[in-house]
UniProtKB/TrEMBL annotation:
It comes from Angomonas deanei. It comes from the Eukaryota. This is Uncharacterized protein. The chain crosses the membrane at residues 12-36, 48-74, 128-149. Keywords: Membrane, Transmembrane, Transmembrane helix. Residues 167-192 are annotated as: Disordered. Residues 174-183 have a biased composition (Pro residues).
Length: 243
C-alpha cells in the first residue's frame, strides 16, 4: 500500500494528497478569477451561481490550507500508530470532500450544462475535468472510510463477536511433541568440580537443575580460599583460610 512507502519522516499518501489538492485549489482559484467573475459570465449564469462559485472557492481554499493539509501532515509526520495516522488522514479527506469537492462539482456541472461543452471556455473544461477526477477519488475514499468506522462503531456497541472468558487461560497445545534438549558436554581438567570422578576429564550433565547445582558448587570451590567460610552443604567446601 502507498501508506507504507516512506520518504524521510513522511508517508507518500498524505504528501501526495497535499500536492494534488494544492494544484486543484490553484486551478479552481484561476477559473473563478478569469472566468466566473467576468461581467459577461455573471450576466449569462446569473449572480447567484457566480457568487456560489466564489464562496465555495474561498471556503475550499481555506479548508485545505487551514485544516486538511495540516491534518495530513500531522498524520504523516507525527502519528505514533497506524490507527492515529488513518484517522487524521480520513478527517482531512472528509473536510475537503464536503467543503470543496462536492459543492464545486455541483456548481461546475450546472455551469457546463447551461452553456454546453462546445461553447464552454477551454480553461473551464480543464477545471471541470480536474474537479470531476478529484470528486470521484474523494467520494470513494470518503465512503469507504465512513463505512469502515461506522461498522466498527456498530460492532463495539451491538456486535456479538466476543472473546470467550477462558480463551486466554487455556494451556497452549503443542502441535508437535517436544524433545528434550541434548545433553551438555563439559570438558574440564582433572580436578574440575564438574566431574563426579576427579580422575575423569569429561562429565555429562543430564538436567538443567543438575548443571546449576554443579555450577554453584564450582563457584564455591573456586572462591573458597578467598573467603572466611563456605556453605557446609557443599561437597567442595574448603577449610576456612585467608590469603
Amino acid at each position: 500500500m502507498l501508506e507504507y512507502l516512506y520518504l524521510p519522516q513522511l508517508t507518500l499518501l498524505p504528501l501526495a494528497l497535499i500536492v494534488l489538492y494544492l494544484s486543484a485549489v490553484v486551478i479552481t482559484v484561476v477559473n473563478t478569477g478569469v472566468y466566473f467573475q467576468k461581467p459577461p459570465q455573471k450576466a449569462f449564469y446569473g449572480d447567484a451561481l457566480c457568487a456560489a462559485h466564489l464562496a465555495f472557492c474561498i471556503i475550499g481554499t481555506a479548508v485545505f490550507f487551514c485544516f486538511s493539509s495540516a491534518m495530513w501532515l500531522w498524520s504523516a509526520k507525527y502519528a505514533l500508530s497506524r490507527s492515529d495516522r488513518t484517522w487524521r488522514l480520513c478527517v482531512g479527506l472528509w473536510a475537503i470532500y464536503f467543503f470543496k469537492d462536492l459543492p464545486q462539482l455541483v456548481i461546475e456541472t450546472v455551469a457546463i450544462t447551461k452553456i454546453g461543452i462546445d461553447d464552454a471556455y477551454p480553461f473551464q473544461l480543464v477545471a471541470f475535468f480536474y474537479q470531476a477526477v478529484f470528486f470521484a477519488l474523494s467520494t470513494m475514499g470518503t465512503s469507504a472510510t465512513y463505512a469502515w468506522y461506522v461498522a466498527g462503531a456498530l460492532e463495539r456497541d451491538f456486535g456479538s463477536a466476543t472473546v470467550p472468558e477462558d480463551f486466554f487461560r487455556k494451556d497452549p497445545t503443542p502441535s508437535e511433541p517436544t524433545t528434550p534438549p541434548p545433553r551438555m558436554l563439559h570438558e574440564g581438567e582433572t580436578h574440575s568440580p564438574f566431574t563426579e570422578n576427579p580422575s575423569a576429564g569429561i562429565a555429562f550433565v543430564d538436567a538443567a537443575a543438575d548443571f546449576n547445582n554443579r555450577y554453584d558448587d564450582a563457584l564455591q570451590y573456586l572462591d573458597g580460599p578467598r573467603i572466611q567460610s563456605v556453605s557446609p552443604d557443599s561437597k567442595y567446601a574448603a577449610p576456612p583460610t585467608v590469603i
